[in-house]
Design a protein that fits this description.
CATH superfamily of the largest domain: ATPase, nucleotide binding domain
Shape: globular
Radius of gyration: 21 Å
CATH topology of the largest domain: Nucleotidyltransferase, domain 5
CATH architecture of the largest domain: 2-Layer Sandwich
Structural class: alpha/beta
CATH class of the largest domain: Alpha Beta
Order of helices and strands: EEEHEEHHEHHHHEEEHHHHHEHHHEEH
Largest sheet: 6 strands, mixed
Oligomer: single chain
Number of domains: 2
């Protein structure tokens, strides 16, 4: 069974091809395009790459194409894409304006090119279906809640992989099995005591922090939309809603202008004065740019605040995990994030932390109560596994 995973950005198309055979999971190929102007041509080019490389005899032989979709109004989980799913994705455009439109474009183009191949979506909100109700509720009027205003959580595929892999690294195969089967069993798989408590930090152009108990998420720093939580590269992060109303009145901004500025001119971009890549911000900081230093300070502060929240709600932690581009590669930021947290049992090994870059590593002081890992993100594998399970149970 071969499954192609398409990862669509506002100007990019990346793909990974997996084959599931005789109980093995094989990553056959990966590639993509940046600065995409014509998605149809980009899709055609990627499919031709796979054919000429001998990885895919014919695109029509795919078992499915899977998508790491962000959100849809009124639905979550893993679903075969049909008109109802497309309508729900379109309804979610205002909540995820940077994410949903390119996915809708890509899905429709794949459907045109591969009409006989199932297209399946795994929503980023799916991992949080079993979070406790207080973690999903805002203190808004009931009619708001009934209209869909709730904490949803995102980066679900990334945090789910952390849940699976960290449990394996901690010799808790019972918890790893529960995390792997979560979308099948709904968290009902029994695990042994004591509890396994993990704080997962997905740090990249988009960042979120999740608390995980026995392989199941108890909540995420992002809420109703991917705009919330810690400061993102261009997106604001947490913000008092009355600040939006104030800015609209004081600066005479329309709804469209507010949306654009919060989505594309805020976050690290707004704090640093024009840079949204942490590497550029660190370079500016080293050159003495005070705004760049402030951006890094705010980023670290918010990550630590959310780590502290999950540490409290989990009643401690057995592991702290860093993943995604910044989490995997920026040892100096990991050091700042973990600084002076020995009272919580979090203590880095400086040499191991400096050496860890882009590969799975344990970077904590071996004498500290909390083990600290770098686990490279593997969202596409999680999507491929869930697409395979969906096909096996529904087709």
């Amino acid at each position: 069974m071969k499954i192609l995973i398409a990862n669509l950005g506002s100007t990019s198309l990346k793909y990974r091809l997996f084959e599931f055979r005789d109980g093995a999971e094989l990553a056959l190929a990966q590639g993509g395009r940046e600065r995409v102007e014509d998605y149809g041509r980009a899709i055609d080019d990627c499919l031709e790459e796979l054919r000429t490389a001998g990885r895919l005899a014919a695109p029509e032989s795919l078992a499915a194409v899977g998508f790491k979709t962000v959100l849809a109004e009124g639905m979550t989980g893993c679903r075969r894409i049909d008109d109802r799913v497309l309508q729900a994705l379109e309804a979610g455009n205002p909540v995820a304006p940077a994410h949903n439109p390119p996915y809708l474009t890509g899905i429709r183009l794949f459907a045109e090119r591969l009409p006989a191949v199932p297209l399946v979506a795994l929503f980023e909100t799916a991992f949080y279906q079993w979070a406790p109700e207080p973690a999903t509720r805002y203190a808004v009027p009931r009619k708001w809640h009934e209209s869909g205003v709730r904490r949803q959580g995102f980066h679900g595929a990334s945090h789910k992989y952390v849940a699976e892999r960290s449990a394996a690294l901690l010799d808790r195969e019972d918890v790893a099995r529960r995390a792997r089967r979560l979308y099948v069993d709904g968290g009902d798989t029994k695990v042994a005591k004591p509890e396994l408590r993990v704080i997962s930090c997905h740090l990249g152009g988009s960042s979120s922090i999740t608390g995980i108990r026995d392989g199941v998420a108890i909540g995420n720093s992002m809420g109703f939309s991917p705009q919330s939580g810690v400061p993102q590269n261009n997106r604001v992060g947490d913000l008092d809603p009355f600040a939006v109303l104030h800015a609209m009145r004081r600066l005479n901004l329309s709804v469209e202008e507010i949306e654009r500025e919060l989505c594309y001119e805020a976050g690290l971009m707004g704090l640093s004065g024009g840079w949204n890549d942490v590497r550029d911000i660190q370079r500016e900081n080293a050159a003495g740019n005070g705004a760049a230093q402030l951006a890094l300070d705010c980023f670290v502060y918010e990550i630590r605040r959310w780590m502290g929240s999950w540490h409290l709600l989990l009643n401690g932690a057995d592991a702290l995990v860093f993943t995604a581009g910044i989490g995997e590669n920026r040892g100096e930021l990991r050091e700042r994030i973990c600084e002076n947290l020995d009272g919580l049992g979090i203590r880095l090994d400086p040499a191991k932390n400096r050496a860890a870059r882009g590969e799975e590593s344990e970077i904590g002081d071996p004498a500290a109560p909390v083990r600290i890992f770098v686990i490279p993100a593997n969202e596409e594998l999680v999507v491929a596994r869930e697409v395979k399970r969906y096909l096996e149970h529904n087709d």
